[in-house]
Structure formats: structure tokens, C-alpha cells
């Protein structure tokens, strides 16, 4: 019989998958803070680094399933993905290594800033490039930075990689999303291996999150056209701001 804690973990993955599919955000934006706040109710304490480790498996699940679908649709720039993935994999390894050694307060602070940045983008709306253009020379270092953030914070490609591919590499937005998903799966494999080697990856929790994310992503894709995007973005932005405040209070409130 599945325990109440595992049902809650699967529920976290479901929520991450649904919101990720509807809003185009990486599941880690939901998974990491949700695990930190939910698991203590079941008597299970978890550090933010352990939550990030679990989130890597959710990112991997989304990357593999999403990339397969996008490849069938012909949206993935495979050559671009193969050329840029070494930068994100290298950055991911560095970020994951930092996640093993940095204090929890530092990781929580960076993650809170990411949540606020995501909320800002949802409310304001990102500028998008729809016409092909020459890639910037800043693409390789920028993608390495995206990999570092992925490894350190357990996020997918939607938050950092998609804007970089779209605005700096000049890839049209739909293909940028597809190519980012393709790269994301490759990067998450290396990140998960680093956290596993560091002893922070709980395989049971990771499996529950991955299951929920896969089911939730399918449900979110079907719900996307039925839910008013503007209202959902406003609600989720406020939730991200609240969550960032909660994280900062938890790690800095008693400083």
C-alpha cells in the first residue's frame, strides 16, 4: 500500500507537471519548495539540497517524454542541441557540485531569487523572437550558466534556457522550447549522477515525483486551452512570490 507521504510526493509531481505544461516553467520551481514544506507534515525532514536532487529526476522525466514528442513533431533543432548540450552538461556538473558543498541558506537564497524572477517574467511577459537570426557569441557561456543553475537549483529549461535560445541564439520560440527540452534531459542525467554520488538522492521520493510529473504534464497539455492563461499566470506569480518569502524567512528569519 502506498503511504500518505508517497501520495503527497506524487501529488507534488502532478502539480509540477500540470503547471509546467500550462505555463512553460521547469518543474523544479514547484517541486523543490513543495517538498520542503510538505514532507515535514509526515515527519520527514528534507534539506533544500535533497529536494533539488529529487527534482533532477523530475526534470529528467519531463525531458525524456517531452523531447520524444517534440522530435516526432519535427520541432527539435537536434544539431543545435548536440552542439550546446556539452556546455549545459559541464555547467550542470559544476552547479551540482556547488549544490553539494554550498550552505543550505545560500542555495535557498538563490532559489528564492529565481522564484521572484520567474514571477516577474510571468507577470510582464518575456520578449520573444519569432524570426530566425544569427546567434550571439554569448550563447556558449550563457548556456553554461543555464547548466549551472539547472544543477544547483534542480530546474528545467523553461526558466533559463528557453529565453537564452530564443533571444541570444535566435531560435524561434516553439523550436526554442523543444530544443531546450531535448537539452534538459541530457543535462539532468549528469546532474542526478552527481547528487547520487554525493548521497543526497532519495530514489523513492524521486520515483514518486517523476511519476506525478509525467502524468501531470499530459493532463496540463490537455488543460492548457481551457484555463484562462492570464488569471492562472497572476495566481501562480503570487504563489511564487509567497513561496520565495517563506523560503527566505525559513533560512534568514532566525539569523
Automatic annotation (TrEMBL):
Tell me if Zinc is a UniProt keyword of this record.
no
| Annotated membrane topology | Multi-pass membrane protein
InterPro entries reported in the protein's UniProt record: TM_pro_TauE-like (IPR002781), TSUP/Inactive_protease-like (IPR051598)
Location of the protein in the cell: Cell membrane; Membrane
Entry superkingdom = Bacteria
Kindly list the residue ranges recorded as spanning the membrane.
Answer: 6-39, 51-71, 83-101, 106-123, 143-169, 176-197, 203-220, 232-252
Tell me which family the UniProt entry assigns to this protein.
Belongs to the 4-toluene sulfonate uptake permease (TSUP) (TC 2.A.102) family.
Q: Please state what the protein is called.
A: Probable membrane transporter protein
Traced from the root, the source organism's taxonomic lineage reads:
Bacteria, Thermotogati, Deinococcota, Deinococci, Deinococcales
Amino acid at each position: 500500500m502506498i503511504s500518505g507521504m508517497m501520495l503527497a510526493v506524487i501529488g507534488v509531481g502532478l502539480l509540477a507537471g500540470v503547471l509546467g505544461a500550462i505555463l512553460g516553467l521547469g518543474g523544479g520551481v514547484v517541486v523543490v519548495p513543495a517538498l520542503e514544506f510538505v514532507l515535514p507534515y509526515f515527519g520527514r525532514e528534507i534539506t533544500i539540497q535533497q529536494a533539488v536532487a529529487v527534482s533532477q529526476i523530475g526534470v529528467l522525466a519531463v525531458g525524456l517524454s517531452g523531447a520524444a514528442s517534440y522530435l516526432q513533431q519535427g520541432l527539435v533543432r537536434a544539431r543545435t542541441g548536440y552542439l550546446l548540450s556539452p556546455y549545459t552538461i559541464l555547467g550542470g556538473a559544476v552547479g551540482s557540485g556547488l549544490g553539494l558543498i554550498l550552505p543550505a541558506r545560500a542555495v535557498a537564497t538563490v532559489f528564492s531569487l529565481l522564484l521572484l524572477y520567474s514571477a516577474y517574467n510571468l507577470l510582464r511577459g518575456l520578449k520573444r523572437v519569432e524570426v530566425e537570426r544569427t546567434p550571439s557569441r554569448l550563447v556558449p557561456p550563457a548556456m553554461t550558466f543555464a547548466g549551472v543553475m539547472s544543477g544547483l537549483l534542480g530546474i528545467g529549461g523553461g526558466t533559463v534556457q528557453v529565453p537564452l535560445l530564443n533571444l541570444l541564439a535566435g531560435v524561434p520560440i516553439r523550436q526554442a522550447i523543444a530544443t531546450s527540452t531535448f537539452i534538459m534531459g541530457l543535462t539532468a542525467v549528469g546532474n542526478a549522477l552527481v547528487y547520487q554520488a554525493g548521497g543526497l538522492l532519495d530514489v523513492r521520493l524521486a520515483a514518486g515525483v517523476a511519476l506525478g510529473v509525467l502524468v501531470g504534464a499530459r493532463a496540463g497539455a490537455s488543460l492548457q486551452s481551457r484555463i484562462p492563461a492570464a488569471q492562472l499566470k497572476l495566481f501562480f506569480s503570487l504563489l511564487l512570490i509567497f513561496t520565495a518569502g517563506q523560503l527566505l524567512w525559513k533560512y534568514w528569519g532566525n539569523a
